[in-house]
Amino acid sequence: MAEKKIDLSSLKSKGFLPQRQENMFSMRLKVVGGRVDAEKLREIADAAEKYGYGYIHITSRQQIEIPFVKLEDAEEASSELEKLGISGGSSGKRVRAVVACQGNKVCRNGLIDCQKLACRIDEKYFGEAVPKKLKIAVTGCPSACVRPQENDFGIMGAVRPELLEEYCVGCGLCEKACKVQAITVIDEKALIDPEKCILCGACIAACRKDALRAEKTGCTIFVGGHGGRQSRSGTKLLELADEKQLFSILEKTFEYYRKEGLDGERFGDLLERLGFEKYLDAIGCVLHDEDLL
User: Fold this and answer.
1) 3-state class of 36 per DSSP?
2) pTM for the full model?
3) What is the pLDDT of residues 138-197, one digit of tens each?
4) Cα–Cα distance measured from residue 172 to residue 159, given in angstroms and rounded to the nearest whole number
């Protein structure tokens, strides 16, 4: 009886990463925004005991991997988890799963709903073919817990504070709350330096007199970052983008990357090779002059 031929390329597309041990694979499972339902965690634990060595590895990008899956068990393990609604993670020249913090639904510092945004992006782009791998991160505020600046496309919650002078009593709580010294109290009135403000909203949260409010809430967008041996910090594209503008820029970024990117070229390297101005021209119709940084 002829031995069944296993398609290694197909396995890699399903998230199986070859280990240093021969015919052993680490099975990467798709996790969006670091969130996994308890029921699915139990199923993954069962799979780790059945097909692996009884443990899982949580990666730096919030993914779950089951190491030591035998080659002959790979297809069965993948099929079994797929039936339970647990799909394989992305690898190779594809869009990876979106990482995200818990955002404003949980974190006191969160300014945007990171989990909802991550799911929307994942549904539209996960696994899409690109010239190289492409990573996206969504973080709720300028604390930047998931390091959006180190991703090909980074999204960070931001809020622009507005001072209502008639309510300000010069108590200084906002000045103490500001970690970047963007606020000073002079003559019993708070003054905000827009050049120093990082749009974190800490001053708004600290105010007890409703003298500070959110003038505008949105996203700061970074493009072209990546980690690795030759890391690169992303370029800040614009601040306070609304959701419609964000998705328009993201779509045009994908179009530009697919059209201009060389095989095996990261997005940041493409920006460096052709220049940032060419990229701006490609997405310019969704940017306003006052947004450009």
Assistant:
1) coil
2) 0.91
3) 999 999 999 999 999 999 999 999 999 999 999 999 999 999 999 999 999 999 999 999
4) 20
